[in-house]
Amino acid sequence: MQKLIKNLFDAQRKHFRKGGKLERLYAFFESMETVFFAPARVTQLVPHIRDHLDVKRYMASVVFMLLPLLLFGMYNVGYQAYAAKQLNPGHFWIFWFGFKTVLPLVIVSYVVGFAWEILFSAIRGHEISEGLFVTAMLFPLTLPPTTPLWQAALGISFGVVIGKEVFGGTGRNFLNPALTGRAFLYFAYPSQMSGDAVWTALVNFKAGAVDVVSAATPLVVAAEAKVHGAVEQVLADAGYTFNTLFFGLYPASIGASSAFLCLIAAIVLMILGIASYRIILGDILGILVMGFIVNLTAGESSAAYLSLNPFYHLIIGGAAFGIVFMSTDPVSAPDLHISRWIYGFLVGVLTVVIRVFNPAYPEGIMLAILFMNVFAPLLDHMVISIRLRNRIPNV
Amino acid sequence: MENLISLFVNSVFVGNILLAYFLGMCSYLAVSKNLKTSSGLGVAVIFVMSITTPVNWMVYHYLLAPGALAWAGLPDVDLGYLKLVLFIAVIAGLVQAVEMIIDRYSQALYNSLGVFLPLITVNCAILGASLFMVERQYSFTESVVYGVGSGAGWALAIIAMSTIMQKLRYADVPEGLEGFGIRMIVTGLMAMAFMLFSGITL
To answer: Which of B34, B182, B192 is best to mutate for the A interface (most A CBs within 10 A)?
Structure first.
């Protein structure tokens, strides 16, 4: 089998080499070949590191950890759709409906993303960067299940082209491309990206029957809770108990609802050293600390949301997903250990601040990460200059 | 007091004069290449803005506003239409005066601000802050806080921008987008991230 694939690539290689008729698509050929085989190139100068964990395997392990979230998201989309009609047709049909709804979004995201990537690599002569595998998988998971396909295409185009390719491709951008595309869609089409009605895809029994189910997401329920000190109870009354929220069976973005699966992914990625544990722990710490602080400031006159148990902030909405997969993006996060702690901490703090104090956005993690991406280079710079100042001159 | 703190936070983050109102773009785009110069310009803008905004407040409220000349026995005179011209003149004059004073008394600060101090005369963020101050009917203390806050917001934006440009040293920007093009794109993306705060009512 391995031989067969190798022969296939070896036979086609000549067309893509310099002077071949498909010379311009060499980057595409190369990217397909490295899916199966480690690249044969070696670095010209020291240091040489012998490791099979190249960028592609590195990114692939993130995509691998996203797959359970995707599958669970499909099940959840179906579950919410049938629950809205008070039906329970069995696990298979629930999953099948979600599969039908979500798969086109994922396919559109990959096809459009790759089309831009191939176009840029063919014209500009750079390699097809592996970051796209992750970006194109992350992006649909952050969308509401009712997103029209053309909007998904537009969002991933903006994310890939403006968020990444104009800077020269993966590793050179300064914002997370998937989040850039998501935020662009959020501001460009607020009515399809927010509100109560977009989080549940619907099972259509009669063709053409337009039906909207508006189900308030846990974030909205918590924000509108009136009973001081008992927001958890209000959530539970709305059907969002701690367990529901932790395991993720509630209306939300396709793949971002399950804190449980995010936790597993976080542990695996931290052990493998792919996600920075400093950022993840900093995020969690930031959310908890800020959660406790708003708890303390909560008086009888202030909004009941302030008194929400800080641990709930970790499990509702997209916080867990953002922490594990978005804020740890090695390109847009800072590079130094201390600045990673600060960066993570501030992402957590801003997330809670936006959720609690900004009525314009129910979820804060998306813009909090983008905002801290903007300041990541500044954090690095400050840490370096403090270190240089404290260094004992060696004369 | 609470009101002043929220006005400060508001003018630094929520209504950032550069990233929410897009004022002062020209010097921002021209000088954001290098961190040292951009932080110098940022400090100069904070400095000048926190002086010109309250001074313009006094100019407006004792000379230009309808009925402001009552102290001179002219209660019916309304010179409000002169505010644009006079504000520019006040800013230009003040920048010159400030420059001379700093030159005389603090050579170190003068050297570190360098050419940026006179450049600020033509920075529209300074004029913008004065005009906003009139439009929003701030009191004198509020105009001081607003001046400092807007200057700090502007400085924050240009410093963040220059560190991003440092990170983008390795970027491979397509021909035709190099220079101003990519900086406009970066500014747009930064403004999108700053929308984080829009909608917060303090």
So the answer is: B192
**A183 & A302 share domain:** no
- DSSP characters over A144-189: -TT--HHHHHHHHHHHHHTTTGGGTSTTS-SS-HHHHHHHHHHHH-
What backbone phi and psi angles, to 5 degrees, belong to A31?
Answer: -70, -35
B193–A371 CB contact, under 8 Å: yes
Q: Please identify which residue in the block is written with the tokens 């900093």.
A: A282
Q: Check whether residue A99 and residue A147 sit in a common domain.
A: yes
Our CA-based measurement puts residue B164 at a distance from the nearest CA of chain A, in whole angstroms, of 6
A229 and A193 within one domain: no
Looking at the structure, do residues A74 and A207 belong to the same domain, yes or no?
yes
Average the pLDDT over each of A202-211, A235-244, B101-110 and give the range with the smallest value.
A202-211
A367 — contact with chain B (CB < 8 Å)? yes
Q: What is the domain range of residue A14? A: 2-36
Q: Does one domain contain both A232 and A88? A: no
Asked if A291 has any chain B CB less than 8 Å from its own CB, the reply is no
pLDDT at A53 over 80: no
| Residue A50 forms part of a structural domain | no
Structure tokens at A265: 């992914």
Chain B: give the shortest CA distance to residue A308, in Å.
19
Residues A129 and A223 in one domain: no
Subunit contact B173:A166, Cβ cutoff 8 A:
yes
**Same structural domain for residues A110 and A243?**
no
Residue % of chain B over a pLDDT of 90: 27
Q: CB distance B196–A175 less than 8 Å?
A: no
Cα B67–chain centre separation = 28
Instruction: Note the pLDDT tens digit of each residue in A35-46.
Output: 777 776 677 777
Q: Is residue A83 part of a domain?
A: yes
pLDDT tens across A19-31, in order? 777 777 777 777 7
Q: What are phi and psi of A326, to 5 degrees?
A: -100, -45
CB B124 within 8 A of CB B52: no
Query: Chain A: nearest CA to B20, how far in angstroms?
Result: 14
Convert the pLDDT of each residue in A190-226 to its tens digit: 888 877 778 877 776 544 444 556 677 888 888 887 7
Mean pLDDT throughout B127-156? Answer: 92
Query: How many whole angstroms separate alpha carbon B101 and alpha carbon B103?
Result: 5
Q: Is A24 on the interface with B (CB under 8 A)?
A: no
